[in-house]
Amino acid sequence: MRASVTGTKAASQSRTSSAAAQYIKRSFPIYLMVLPGLLLIILFKYLPMFGIAISFQQYSPFRGIWGSEWVGFDHFVRLFTEQQFVTLLKNTLILNLIDICFFFPAPIVFALILNEVRLRWFKATLQTVVYLPHFISMIVVVGITVILFASEFGGINQWLDGLGLPRYEGLNDPDHFRWIWLLQNIWKEVGWSAIIYLAALASIDPTLYEAAKMDGANRWRQIWHITLPSLTQVILILFILRLGSFIDIGFEHIFLLQNPLNLAVSDVFDTYIYRIGVQQGEFSYTTAVGLFKSVVGLVLVLAANAIAKRSGKEGVY
């Protein structure tokens, strides 16, 4: 009897291992395709997380992580009591709110407009033209802006001088900095960001539109009652993920536009980290600043996901 049970278990295990081997063999190309991205995430996202320890140390490159002196939360106390903290937080929050209010909806609106275009050649051409700026380096984008609007040698200002009109000093005007930054973001990324919304629109069952037409719904009604509800889940997930970088507004673009005249509105945590950490070598302190940003982003994602779940929607997890 025991031998029979043992034989049955062995046969079951053999079938399970055989099925697992067949599954791995069948899925091997997919795993191989995922491998480079997985290695990239491990090497550049997870392994560097061990460096968070230096935010609680007075780190010295000569002593290393294990030999540096532990100072606890001293760097965080310094951050929150720093005179610039309020300015950095205000500038970061304002830029992020502008980004969420104006840039985040822009790809959605573009995808909805493009979805209504019926001429295929015009739709394809428009998609290509709007996608292309994504592949242009931000350095080039800012360089073109400077060439056009620089105070002394800018092409637009020289043209305005020739017409006897006042110069445009937008690059040096703190009141214009945020809107120039926003418009450049929209011009460069709105087409690329719309791809996921266009994919979601392509998955909508066309019979829904046909039924709506039979009920007498015009295009606006179809968009409002069919298209937008079909995009709700995608919009919600992307919005929750966007909150994860709410304090992390980005370095390159702001740094390229930044100058002493607009520093009061353009100085954010990322440029502050570069100035204090890279230029002045305060690695432990700026690591603490980066950890603060990450914790805020994590809390916002968890809170937004919990609210979405309680509202009956599907969250990120």
TrEMBL record:
Pfam name, any one: BPD_transp_1
Any one cellular-component term (Gene Ontology): plasma membrane
InterPro entries: MetI-like, MetI-like_sf
UniProt membrane topology term: Multi-pass membrane protein
Cross-referenced SUPFAM superfamilies: MetI-like
Membrane is among the record's keywords: yes
Transmembrane residue ranges: 30-56, 93-117, 129-150, 190-211, 223-241, 288-308
Subcellular location: Cell membrane; Membrane
Origin superkingdom: Bacteria
Domain ABC transmembrane type-1 residue range list: 89-304
Xref: Gene3D superfamilies: MetI-like (1.10.3720.10)
UniProt KW keywords: Membrane, Transmembrane, Transmembrane helix, Transport
Any Gene Ontology biological process: transmembrane transport
Family the entry assigns: Belongs to the binding-protein-dependent transport system permease family.
Family matches, as PANTHER family: POLYGALACTURONAN_RHAMNOGALACTURONAN TRANSPORT SYSTEM PERMEASE PROTEIN YTEP, PROTEIN LPLB
This protein's name: Sugar ABC transporter permease
Organism this protein belongs to: Paenibacillus arenilitoris
